[in-house]
TrEMBL record:
Organism field: Sparus aurata (Gilthead sea bream)
Gene: MEP1B
Alphabetical UniProt keywords: Disulfide bond, Glycoprotein, Hydrolase, Membrane, Metal-binding, Metalloprotease, Protease, Signal, Transmembrane, Transmembrane helix, Zinc, Zymogen
Annotated CDD domains: MAM (cd06263)
InterPro entries assigned to the protein according to its UniProt record, in alphabetical order: ConA-like_dom_sf (IPR013320), MAM_dom (IPR000998), MATH/TRAF_dom (IPR002083), MetalloPept_cat_dom_sf (IPR024079), Peptidase_M12A (IPR001506), Peptidase_Metallo (IPR006026), TRAF-like (IPR008974)
Record keyword Disulfide bond present: yes
Cofactor dependence: Zn(2+)
GO MF annotation terms: metalloendopeptidase activity; zinc ion binding
Signal peptide: 1-17
Protein name: Metalloendopeptidase
Length: 683
């Protein structure tokens, strides 16, 4: 090749490698990896694909109490784990805490513990093997919430769903499509080895193989006897209802550690909620002439059901109030998340106050909501900070403007964990999917993290052109008001992109998650730029239709976020709407290796050990800082941005999702969310 050609080619490759807002990095290379593909690519040949166990010795993990862990399991995160994997593992623990009685605690010298490391794939033993350090691998591409839940379910004592004794009643194994030598992966265990715990076969289990596991070419190796379950098996979104039933039965769970309350107002006792003081009442209704015409839980689909609580501002006089108070709740001290759906068909100056009543009866205002008369059900996340028993109180206050409706409340959930920071409400998603071409990317509004970083998420609703049939999702840093005060390249911020499953009970919400973490050392492919540098330096200028502009950095995410068939399952779409939940959290505390128990380093007494462990325990349990309400975001930013805070103002007092910071360098042309022509704007 002539030198001139080489120079031209080099020039091209350098040009192509320069970072722009259109650069996209697929964390999984555009492949919807299942555990078995990952392990096969890594050259592993384990029992049933991801079980590290001597087959002959221990085939009865489910039966037999000796394989049980205590319900609080000691863990150790080995230092070779990727930062994103560490963050995802801690998020998976939160799911166990919310939905089961299983909890996790940093290893403090207990005889047996689970040591999580980065091996060459995703694998675990089944049950507590009493080996001291029982290792569980979260390798490359295993850092997904459902995958981590799956491996820990093995560790807790579960085999794969399709190895149940009764599986031949539900699926056909296509033996001649299985790779030679891999047939052993499709064995079943008799009911002396593995108990189904009285739960029917579950195609939707997170422990079920996918249809093409261990296949030769592209033909399935597993065919479900009920055809419509072909695209259900192999889900890695999270625990199914049956997974939870089985786990809770195996461990005799009666309650979870962080779930507090869920109410969809279907029962006449309205979950023990009471009408407090106030000259008006909330009513349990199934439709209101001024709207809504149906509830949120069932969307009016179930005859004789479908209730919500309504305050009629149409029939109230200015200043009238109605109190709706939860029964006494006993959350864990610390952060709590109150999640609910609100429909406002009243007047713009009607106000819904959310308060907390403490054990002495004192009321504290947490948040006021007004305006937002959208004529649709809107999701709200409100962070509470309760230390003892408390009631959550909804106080509707009638304004002066004319009203033909009022406030309606449905699907209330309280859990002892922080809320997601931001909500992106996508309306009319079915229509958008019908009209959005393959390869078109749509961006969320820009949001601010508690640390002050500005970001947005871009999605391809109908997939990238190389991956039609999937929704693709990419996280982008964007220019913001605090950029001159922030660290660049952006260090160790974990972005969570979650598509909400809008089931009314938070324990049944199987949100589809992807996390990506900013590595400040990551370079562009040509090695000339820091990948996570300031977007105004390594991004592209974006000009909005109204002439405002900002800079968008490169995208990191996946072209296989969720398949369209899964998107249409469960309640990802409800009333033709979808909700994305976003958080951007600082996980730099996970850079420090998890401390070893004092006892392994010296023979100090237990008191000393406890003292030494308390700090790392706290750090490991709270790796992240999440803040959802605008006030808290502003408060968090206050620390980092004393210089700009004076010029900040919150444009939308009522919104917990969008904080607009104006008149500061770098963010001056921010457009207000409500003025955008896009159908994708958050409420
Ligand atoms: Zn497995």
């Amino acid at each position: 090749m002539e030198l001139r050609c080489i120079i031209v080619l080099l020039g091209l490759s350098l040009a192509a490698a320069k970072l722009t807002g259109d650069t996209e990095t697929d964390v999984d290379g555009g492949v919807d990896w299942d555990i078995f593909n990952i392990n096969e690519a890594a050259g592993l040949d384990l029992l049933e694909g991801d079980i590290e166990q001597d087959e002959s010795s221990s085939r009865n993990s489910i039966i037999g109490d000796q394989y049980r862990w205590p319900t609080t399991i000691p863990y150790y995160l080995e230092d070779n784990l990727d930062m994103n994997a560490k963050g995802v593992i801690l998020k998976a623990f939160d799911q166990y805490r919310l939905k089961t009685c299983i909890d996790f605690t940093p290893w403090n010298g207990e005889a047996n513990y689970i040591s999580v490391f980065k091996g060459s794939g995703c694998f675990s033993s089944v049950g507590n093997q009493h080996v001291g350090s029982q290792r569980l691998s979260i390798g490359n591409n295993c850092d997904r919430l459902g995958t981590v839940e799956h491996e820990f379910l093995h560790a807790l004592g579960f085999w794969h769903e399709q190895s149940r004794a009764d599986r031949d009643d539900y699926v056909n194994i296509i033996w001649d499509q299985i790779e030679q030598g891999k047939e052993h992966n499709f064995r079943t265990y008799d009911d002396k080895t593995s108990s189904a715990l009285g739960v029917p076969y579950d195609y939707g289990s997170v422990m079920h193989y996918s249809k093409t596991s261990f296949n030769i070419a592209s033909e399935p190796t597993i065919v479900t006897k009920i055809p419509q379950f072909m695209d259900v098996i192999g889900q890695r979104m999270g625990f199914s209802e049956s997974d939870l039933t089985k786990l809770n039965r195996l461990y005799n769970c009666t309650k979870s550690s962080t779930f507090v309350e869920s109410c969809n107002f279907e029962e006449e006792n309205i979950c023990g909620m009471i009408q407090g003081p106030g000259n008006r009442k909330w009513e349990q209704l199934s439709s209101v002439s001024g709207g809504p015409q149906s509830d949120f839980s069932n969307m009016g689909q179930c005859k004789g059901k479908g209730f919500f609580m309504h305050f009629s501002s149409a029939s109230a006089a200015p200043g009238d109030q109605a109190f709706l108070e939860s029964r006494w709740l006993y959350p864990k001290p610390g952060a709590q998340c109150l999640q609910f759906f609100l429909h406002n068909s009243g007047a713009a100056d009607d106000v819904l106050n959310i308060l907390v009543r403490d054990s002495e009866g004192k009321l504290t205002l947490v948040k006021s909501i007004s305006g937002d008369v959208t004529g649709s059900w809107e999701l709200h996340n409100v962070n509470l900070d309760v230390t003892k028993k408390a009631r959550v109180v909804f106080v509707a206050v009638r304004g002066k403007s004319p009203s033909t409706g009022g406030f309606s409340l449905d699907d209330i959930n309280v859990s002892s964990m922080k809320c997601p920071q931001h909500i992106w409400h996508i309306r009319n998603i079915t229509g958008l999917m019908a009209t959005t071409p393959v390869g078109r990317k749509t961006y969320s509004p820009r949001f601010l993290s508690p640390a002050g970083y500005s970001f947005q998420v871009g999605v391809y609703l109908n997939g990238r052109s190389d991956r039609p049939g999937y929704v693709a999702a990419y996280f982008h840093l964007t220019s913001g008001p605090n950029d001159h005060l922030l660290k660049w390249p952006c260090p160790w911020q974990m972005a969570t992109m979650a598509l909400m499953d809008q089931k009314s009970d938070v324990r049944q919400q199987m949100n589809m998650h992807r996390m990506v973490t900013t590595d400040p050392n990551k370079m562009s492919s040509d090695g000339t730029e820091f990948y996570w540098d300031n977007p105004s330096k390594v991004g592209s200028k974006v000009t909005e239709p109204d002439g405002s502009s900002y800079y968008r950095g490169s995208g990191t995410g996946t072209s296989v976020f969720i398949t369209h068939s899964r998107l249409k399952s469960r309640s990802y779409i409800k009333g033709d709407d979808a909700f994305f939940l976003f958080s951007l959290e600082d996980i730099s505390n996970l850079l420090v290796p998890q401390p070893l128990p004092k006892s392994t380093a010296s023979a100090d007494d237990g008191l000393m050990k406890a003292g030494v462990q308390s700090a790392p325990q706290e750090a490991a349990n709270n790796p992240v800082v999440i803040t959802a309400v605008a006030g808290s975001v502003a408060a968090a930013m206050l620390v980092a941005t004393m210089l700009v805070i004076l010029r900040m103002r919150r444009r939308r007092q009522e919104s917990d999702e969008v904080v607009i910071v104006q008149d500061t360098p770098g963010f001056t042309e921010e457009r207000p969310a409500e003025s955008s022509p896009s159908a994708f704007i958050a409420p």
